[in-house]
Design brief:
Chain A has 198 residues and is mostly helical. The first copy, chain A, is built from nine helices and no strands. The structure holds a DNA duplex (31 and 31 nucleotides).
Chain lengths: 198, 198, 198, 198
DNA sequence: CCGTAAACGAGACGGTACGTCCTGTCTTCTA
DNA sequence: TAGAAGACAGGACGTACCGTCTCGTTTACGG
């Protein structure tokens, strides 16, 4: 007769299974790319039943989102040094992760999944896109308030510019998403500041 | 006396079949979205053999690229009025087409296909992305030469900003890709011009 | 405490699916003949996935062999009454089954499949041909030993004669493969017996 | 107003095309067997249009029948030496041809085609099966009339025995269809003759 | 020597089926 | 209840041939 009412009845989920799935998924998308990434393949590689994956993630995309976030630092620690430096830090968190082709593949796949699944799109926005956009947006509006950027600036559009450049190059562009690339972005934004004028 | 040396041997491709495929594909992606878009489905809807599709397009993606371009005007005619107006025209060609959800879906699908097929990626760049980027790049560099934009400007990055904003919002964003949105983009770029300074 | 060590892992094959496939296959070959007999057609008619057929049978031919054997009595029970009667019984098992045009079609199809697939040929021999030939061969050699047939007889050749007559008429001949036909075969073999001589 | 009723208008059939088709078909069935024998394949190998094959033969089977008969000697020359020798000669014409695996394959294929095409079945009977059966039947009935075989004999059944043994071993049996095999057949038939009795 | 007409290589065409892969769900046994 | 295993209905893949068709070109004969 089971005692504890808190912990639900039955056998608890096995944490090793969780890890095995994430590891197998990461290895698979590293080795084969998104084209041959399937739940079936992950299960086989992880030595796990398909059901054990579906029990944890409602779709391929949800798994990929967790896979991208897995081990990713929180944003805040790097911040606090003001407009151009903090914006650079935000962008470099992404460029750094995406330098690893594995994570670049994951991020591309996440976008793919979002195109045909509205729930997935919401999830991607909430877990990956919005946190970074919000951070950047705040930095921009603060910079405007501080007179470091013109008061007429369309802050939302600047955020679109900055992240658009990153996403575009991830998905279709030729640019290597290096730290240097992030620096070029920020440099170009800085040209808008009154201080940059002759 | 041989007539046409040019005309290749064998029965020529049937233009009606070509049209039927494009029409069926467009209808299908309009009615069902990309998720249930299949070569099989297009063939059935067009009343055509699958082979007749594969004979013309090597992949689902290649078909989608042609589908997006089908009936799209050349860029040049709209140009010739100088930097901000021409840039706006270039962007509005896309925003206009993408206002139709059918073409928005096609364009999303094209990006999806490009993520798992390097040939497809090249095709998308060559047929859809690069022509517009080149047009915009030329406008930007001309504007710099004319002193309408600062000489220190990273033209390539401006192009990334401009198209990044469009692609990002197509794939993941909340912005409605209206003509007004294109205007906001151009307005923000104009803030860089020396003339806009106090 | 583990119960059954024997029961293999995973969901067991569904016996209803097995039956549905055999029934659909039989109906199909009855109604349409071998020409339009396809795995696809069987699956559709059985309301079953193609994979469920391939899981059980490696080829169309293997399915047909099982289909022919399905419900066919073992040979032995009918035997035990000595040379001419037992030989007749062996032959009549086949003529009886083949009186039903459905099973005649199946048997023809089985030969067809065997012509282009060595594995199939082995299967047909093992499951259909050899058991009957062995039974007949034993009866012949016993009859020789008992002096009912001449000691100089080439027993293997007699078996070839007897079954050759059946197979030939099934595949190419005009003879209706009735019980009477089997009787004619046995009668002709009996002419070899010393007892039949003047 | 066309004059000659005999020679029809238009370009006459090219005899080289005819030969090229037969040669390509023979080579194909020799090298690949019946499994991958297709009109498409023959056309490609012969360097000929598919239509040129369909113009001459109504089906794959009709082509195969001609292919088998191509270059085959008439039956008669070998005959005239009485019952056992002439029967042997008739059988050996077939065993000899069938020693070449190419022709064995053709003959098997011909039977295959006959199973799903009534016209083909008639053609095979008329052009390949019946002539030989008729020859044998005549020899048997003559032998009965001459007292070389018992008067009670079922001549048709003997023919079934003799050709059944050949066809069975061609299609399903282990016996190598050598001249020696034909001799064994005839030997066993001879056991029926009154002269063979003690 | 010219026009008609069939033959010819080539290859497109609507179809049908192939055997494989993957989806998301289910059913079994074992822990 | 979780978990490994694997069956299940379903859908699509890309390929191979079928037999028919439409091209441009070639080759004979009859006028």
């Amino acid at each position: 007769m089971p005692k504890k009412a808190a912990g639900r009845a039955g056998r608890p989920r096995d944490e090793n299974v969780h890890r095995a799935i994430l590891d197998a998924a990461r290895d698979l998308i590293r080795d084969e790319g998104y084209a041959s990434f399937s739940i079936e393949g992950v299960a086989a590689r992880a030595g796990v039943a398909k059901q054990s994956i579906y029990r944890r993630w409602s779709s391929k995309g949800a798994l990929l989102v967790d896979l991208y976030m897995d081990g990713l630092d929180r944003l805040e620690p790097a911040l606090g040094r003001g407009f151009p430096d903090d914006l650079l830090a935000v962008l470099q968190q992404t460029t750094k992760r995406v330098q690893d082709p594995t994570y670049a593949n994951i991020l591309k796949s996440v976008v793919v999944e979002a195109q045909s699944d509205p729930d997935m799109r919401k999830l991607v926005l909430k877990k990956i896109v919005e946190p970074r956009r919000e951070a950047a947006k705040t930095l921009i509006t603060n910079a405007i308030a501080a007179g470091e950027l013109p008061s007429t600036l369309d802050a939302e559009m600047i955020v679109d510019f900055v992240f658009g450049a990153v996403w575009f190059n991830l998905l279709l562009g030729d640019a290597n998403l290096t730290s240097q690339f992030a620096r070029r972005i920020v440099k170009t934004i800085e040209l808008l500041s009154p201080a940059s004028r002759p």
